[in-house]
Amino acid sequence: MVKAERFVEKAIQEIKEQVGDGKAIIALSGGVDSSVCAVLAYRAIGDKLIPVFVDTGLMRAGEPERVKEIFGYMNLKFVDAREEFFSALKGVVDPEEKRKVIGELFVRVFEKVAEEEKADYLIQGTIYPDIIESQGGIKSHHNVGGFPTHYTFKGVIEPLRELYKDEVREVARYIGLPEEISERMPFPGPGLAVRVLGEVTPEKVEVVRKANRIVEEELKDIPKWQAFAAVIGRATGVKGDERVYGYIVSIRAVESRDAMTAEPLRLDYEILRKIMRRITEEIPEVVRVVYDITPKPPATIEYE
């Protein structure tokens, strides 16, 4: 387990030394990884840090507003890139292609802000399991294997590259981040795009965003590593007296220590029924809800 005090001191010093007299830019999504990185970097270089929230249209419900509330003291820059991301993802169905498209566009958006602000370095919240999965060819991460090979930054700084998720949480608690961040469930770098199987559209993303909110609300008091919803396809259903062709939503809830392996939670049947009822009633486009009981391995935690 990481010794938080020693790690924080070392990370702050490393960031100071690497950035020097330059400026650094960071993607601040509100997740625990990017939040810890942002706080460490801010303590290291102060106003030489340029924290940016990119609204990709692929974030959790209420994410932009909450990030503003918590990190407004850092003089956040907000970029509305929703149209750009949905346009770039049009027609893309392969999971790896999705991640690479998102990763490249994500960095291009950053480059634009970095050039405007004359930033030299990119700070990322890459953690150890991200690197292992990317190097092993399991799946690329938009801040590892999906990172474009041609970028204009002098360097990339990854303060958390040797930590597992539970160690990142320990650091988050130590530096005083609120519990809603330090204990927040993991969220994929490419956002809800990898919780939509097949082509990503605004409609599908809105469906999965609402379904994720319901799952998080209903399972908030149950110990877990991660719980979420994914749109995995379409199926025939009945609404009223009419046949409809709607979405299939899969619920995934797992326990794990470090995301390298995971086991599905044995959720009470009545809890599952309540989630199903809420999803099908509150999201009319959904006609079927299933619960995924596959461990990792053979599955990964996320679907793509």
Provide structural commentary:
- The structure is a single chain.
- By secondary structure, the chain is α/β, with parallel strands linked by helices.
- It has two domains: 179 residues, HUPs (Rossmann fold, 3-Layer(aba) Sandwich), CATH 3.40.50.620; 92 residues, GMP Synthetase, Chain A, domain 3, CATH 3.30.300.10.
- The protein is built from ten helices and nine strands.
- The strands form two sheets. The chain has a five-stranded parallel β-sheet, with helices on both faces. Strands 6, 7, 8 and 9 form a four-stranded mixed β-sheet that branches.
- Helix 3 links the parallel strand 2 and strand 3.
- The longest helix is centred in the middle third of the chain and has 23 residues.
- 40% of the residues are buried.
- InterPro entries: GMP_synth_C (IPR001674), GMP_synthase_B (IPR026598), GMPS_ATP_PPase_dom (IPR025777), NAD/GMP_synthase (IPR022310), Rossmann-like_a/b/a_fold (IPR014729).
- This is GMP synthase [glutamine-hydrolyzing] subunit B.
- It catalyses: XMP + L-glutamine + ATP + H2O = GMP + L-glutamate + AMP + diphosphate + 2 H(+).
